[in-house]
Amino acid sequence: MSTMLDTYQDSATIKSLEREQSTYLKAELKAGFPRYIETRNHELKIKTNIIDVGSISTNELNACLDLIDHNLGAIYARLHGPTWKMDKIKEMKDSGLIYILLKDNSTEVSSKLAGFLSMRILVDGDLSVLYLYEIQLDKAYQNNKIGSQAMKHLSTIPDKINMNRRYLSRFYPLDGISLTVFSDNLGALKFYQAQGYKFSKMSPRDKKLKDKTVEKPPYYIMIKYSSAAYL
Ligand SMILES: CC(C)(COP(=O)(O)OP(=O)(O)OC[C@H]1O[C@@H](n2cnc3c(N)ncnc32)[C@H](O)[C@@H]1OP(=O)(O)O)[C@@H](O)C(=O)NCCC(=O)NCCS
């Protein structure tokens, strides 16, 4: 499948179309996400702040990079070498990205970054998807259902975008939500599978070697399809 983004070669036009998609995405996220995420610990108040990449401050971006480093820095360094952070920060500034900052508003004084999600709409092979670039929670906030609540709200977004006639008059409907997960990140793999994500046809797969051992690719691509009614 191709979208309007494939039809034009010139990069200024592509950028402008990406900006337009990102405006639709941000509007649906703002409508679809509650101001506060419910958590297992009822004393925790996690506030959602939905902003586009152009509006995120350097401090916030660095705090997001620190979370990635604390959670997955060892895997990134092993797979991409010691300079992985330079590539990551570049990726984190990709045009069209929308961030959902999760701030701990439990106390009057603090507004600590508890985690974040980042995403954009893109074409992956023949699929048009909402691509989740990151979901990262500070270790102190993990296992409180914040991640699964955020994913639950996110899962409603493709269908909502697909019901928007103005969006559909400009772009192909979204096939679903896609994401990349390191094959060594077993916790996250289990987490996504529990949310109904499956390996995408675009995903690298395990290889069975002659000696019957299994060689895992560095990462998998997973997808949760939109409801078929809109496709
Ligand atoms: C993965 C992550 C987003 C999950 O969010 P969370 O709020 O901690 O997860 P939840 O409390 O919603 O857990 C939901 C279920 O996911 C599973 N799960 C989550 N994290 C897990 C882990 N590290 N190991 C094993 N299972 C895990 C559990 O089965 C849990 O179910 P249960 O407690 O009801 O049995 C969060 O732990 C995180 O930020 N991890 C580090 C960064 C990361 O790996 N991000 C994903 C990159 S692809």
Keywords for this entry:
231 residues, alpha+beta, Aminopeptidase, eight-stranded mixed β-sheet, two-stranded antiparallel ribbon, 38% helix, 26% strand, binds coenzyme A
The proportion of residues in beta strands is 25-35%
The CATH architecture is 3-Layer(aba) Sandwich
Structural class: alpha+beta
Shape: globular
CATH homologous superfamily assignment: Gcn5-related N-acetyltransferase (GNAT)
Radius of gyration: 18 Å
The main sheet comes to: 8 strands, mixed
Q: Could you tell me the number of beta strands?
A: 10
Elements, N to C (H/E): HHEEHHEEEHHHEHEEEE
Distance between the termini: 12 Å
| Helicity range | 25-40%
Number of domains: 1
Mean pLDDT: 92
**What is the CATH topology assignment?**
Aminopeptidase
Helix count equals 8
Which sequence of strands runs across the widest sheet? Answer: 1-2-3-4-5-6-10-7
Q: What ligands can be seen in this structure?
A: coenzyme A
Write the layout of secondary structure elements.
Blueprint: H1 4-7, H2 11-32, E1 36-37, E2 46-52, H3 58-80, H4 84-92, E3 98-104, E4 112-124, E5 127-137, H5 146-154, H6 157-162, H7 165-170, E6 176-182, H8 186-194, E7 198-199, E8 207-208, E9 214-215, E10 219-225
Parallel strand pairs: 5-6
Antiparallel strand pairs: 1-2, 2-3, 3-4, 4-5, 6-10, 7-10, 8-9
Helix pairs in contact: 3-4
The site of coenzyme A has 19 residues, from helix 3, strand 5, helix 5 and helix 8.
Short description:
By secondary structure, the protein is of the alpha+beta class. The protein is 38% helix and 26% strand. It has a single domain (4-230), classed as Gcn5-related N-acetyltransferase (GNAT) (Aminopeptidase), CATH 3.40.630.30.
